Amino acid sequence: MYLLKCIAQIGGLLGIALLGNKLTQVFDLHFPGSILGILFIFLLLETKIISLKWVETGANLLIAELILFFIPSAVGVLQYKQLILTNGASFGFVIFLSTITVMVSTGLLAEFLNKIGKGR
Amino acid sequence: MLAGFSFIITILSYVGAKLLYRKKQSVFLSPLVICPFILISLLLSFQVSLETYSAGTQWITNMLQPAIVAFAVPLYKYRALLKKYAVEIALGVFGGSIVAIVSSVMYGKLFHLTPQLLDSLAPRSITTPLAMNISQTIGGLPAMTASFVIVTGIVGIIAGPFILKWFPIHHQVSKGMLLGMGAHGAGTAQAYEIGSIEGAIASLTMIVAGIITIIVAPMLVPIII
Questions:
Q1: A25 inside 8 A of chain B by CB
Q2: Which domain holds residue B8?
Q3: What are the Cα distances from residue B108, in Å, to A86, B69, B134?
Q4: Mean pLDDT of A32-37
Q5: Cα–Cα distance between B73 and B84 in angstroms, integer?
Q6: Staple partner for A98: which of B28, B38, B85, B103, CB 3.0–4.6 Å?
Q7: Same domain, yes or no, for B159 and B205?
Q8: ipTM reported for the complex surpasses 0.90
Q9: Which of B15, B31, B62 is the last residue of a domain?
């Protein structure tokens, strides 16, 4: 029963994602269909056209296993073996330095905004 | 035959890594770190081509799209929380996105990378499908961007716990924002391990960062390259 529910709900979410892709194609929008899909489901929930029960189980499963969906793309670096062998160290340093910079500055900025926000 | 095998091995390595990770919470055992390592080793040692592997695992990658759509559910469930912190999130994520784009390009220049590689690096802080899309728009290599995004996720979840320990960042919202901004989906998964509020904030951050980067990167990147 749980499995059936998951399959049906994930099928629904997949349908919405494909619809989003189609719409961005037709209207020549320069952003991915999945963003439209998020808005679409959110609006359907907000206007109570669909109930949370209809999508929640499948959505939770997809989010819990999110990392699985990245793994084949990660394996795909193999096609740039040469580029990585010559530039790999630079890529590593750039991403390492930049990621740390982003995390620390975002964290501190958020903490600061929270503090001044408390005064409101 | 080999393609079907690729699919099964990918799922098995993921399930195995996840069970192992649950027993021993080391980031090096995180499925995003250990699975690509195992799978690449297998492909190389059995001389299976990447085309064969990709054909077999196409549907795993395709599921990323409904998974992104699924984020509508936590967004909806935590909408009161999101409303409460709307200003903090909007400003914080805007700042974070600018830092992500500018620092990727600047550090990249420091290491004398080509403009095409800088274009591929610029959107690396957001989730794969959105990042690949931007990379294409601004003249990068989308597949290379995908791997930069993955490495970002790995660096982010390794560095995240240290940053949370070493810097005075205590608020649940700040924790969620730094993980979602710094390490997209991987960071969001880690934020959910800390708590459901951190996770909800991280997933919103990831989505907002994606939208901001889509708008800002095509204007900003040509100026700074």
A1: no
A2: 2-62
A3: 15, 32, 18
A4: 84
A5: 18
A6: B103
A7: yes
A8: no
A9: B62
